[in-house]
Design goal:
about 100 residues, alpha+beta, Rossmann fold, four-stranded mixed β-sheet, 2 helices, 4 strands, about 30% helix, Carboxylest/Gibb_receptor, BD-FAE-like_dom
Length: about 100
């Protein structure tokens, strides 16, 4: 099961994340932060095999996008990641797996 959410939104941009999981809302969550040296990449780069491996072993996956350099500086990129984690803690339980 895949569900796309917007975890950060303002007048200039929206940033999305994808939940991958099953109906177990008590599953522990793995947060996937894509590679690319902070200059390229997307949340969609996580492989189907990796998602299946995690899901089959009882984990849900939260794969996030974040703004990229050089247009965005490191403090703002880190803020995006922190905002994703905060969103997961506050909104995740209503949207996807339970977060502890």
């Amino acid at each position: 099961m895949k569900k796309t959410v917007i975890y950060k939104n303002n007048d200039c941009f929206s940033i999305k994340a994808d939940f991958y999981g099953n109906s177990n809302h008590n599953a522990p969550v793995i947060v996937y932060i894509h590679g690319g040296g902070l200059v390229w990449g997307t949340r969609e780069e996580i492989s189907e095999e990796m998602i299946k491996l995690y899901n089959d072993n009882g984990f849900a996956v939260f794969s996030i996008d974040y703004r990229l350099a050089p247009e965005t500086k490191l403090p703002e990129i880190l803020e995006d990641v922190q905002d994703a984690l905060q969103w997961l803690k506050s909104e995740g339980p209503q949207t996807g797996p339970k977060v502890s």
